[in-house]
Amino acid sequence: MDFFHSQESLTTIQWILRAVAAYLFLLIAAKALGQRSISQLRFLDFIIALILGNIIAHPLSDEHLGLVGSMITTIVIVVLYMTTSWLSLKWKFLKHYLDPPPLRLIKNGQILMKNLRKAKISVDHLFSELRKQQIEDIAKVALALWEPGGIISVFLEPQHQPVTAKDMYIPTSSFSLVKPIIVEGSSDDKMLAQLGKDHAWLEAQIHTAHLDMKDVELATIDNQDQLRIYTDLDTIEKDEQTLI
After folding, report:
1. What is the spatial distance between Cα 174 and Cα 224, in angstroms, rounded to a whole number?
2. Which domains does the chain have, with CATH numbers?
3. Contact 29, 78 (CB under 8 A)
4. Which residue among 64, 116, 120, 180 is least packed, with the fewest CB closer than 10 Å?
5. How far apart are CA 224 and CA 217, in angstroms?
């Protein structure tokens, strides 16, 4: 375990072992930080990401620096992060500092320039974000908010919102979530049990479609028990009632 400590020189194997150890350690540390720190960088998350990157990067490139010290420092930073996140749930002033409330950028089609400068956002960037949401006219925007995670939430005026089936009094069927029950020839027995089915039922449906389980790339079922089977060659769509 000499590769953990500072050395005058490291062999190729020791460099590899040091990199692997640091990689595995960072995976554990990132898991402890939580998914939010990875998917959305808040102010605190951004600071932590910078610190952790610098702590681990130096001993990976300099053999004179030990890896143990970097790991201990990382553990301390992770504990501080988790403590600060917990305290932000208890103390409102800390929560508002780390997660400030959304900042209004547009209200009733008018840009709030003062808030735009406060958020350090240019008008060009604001229009770019609106274009990404297929909004070509700022007058259509009832409200635009600058979220703590750096995302701009946009709400259109009612007259510019898309027409829904409810607006047109069009009858619709209930929502149906399609669930995969076969992926690459392997069935999901846990999902089948949740649906009140079993492996024997699934095999019967597959055989009715004149297929073998190993030939099925994907099979899905919806709330109406409609089974869809996907193979390499084509798509076969059958209804459970007709198969049974």
Report:
1. 10
2. 2-95 (no CATH), 103-160 (3.30.240.20), 179-243 (3.30.240.20)
3. yes
4. 120
5. 22
φ, ψ (nearest 5 deg) of residue 129: -65, -35
d(CA 101, CA 96): 7
CA distance 90 to 172: 45
Phi, psi for 143 (deg, rounded to 5): -155, 135
CA dihedral of 21, 25, 28, 32, whole degrees rounded to 10: 180
What is the residue whose two structure tokens read 């992060």? 81
The two tokens of residue 46 are 């951004």
Under DSSP, the state recorded for 98 is H
User: Token digits for 75?
Assistant: 């553990």
| pTM summary value | 0.56
Interatomic CA distance for residues 25 and 125, integer angstroms: 38
Q: pLDDT for 158-209, tens place per residue? A: 999 888 888 888 888 777 788 999 988 888 888 888 888 888 898 888 888 8
What is the spatial distance between Cα 73 and Cα 219, in angstroms, rounded to a whole number? 48
Task: With beta carbons less than 8 A apart as the criterion, state whether 218 and 183 touch.
Answer: yes
Q: In the chain, what are the helix, strand and coil shares in percent, each to the nearest 5?
A: 50, 15, 35
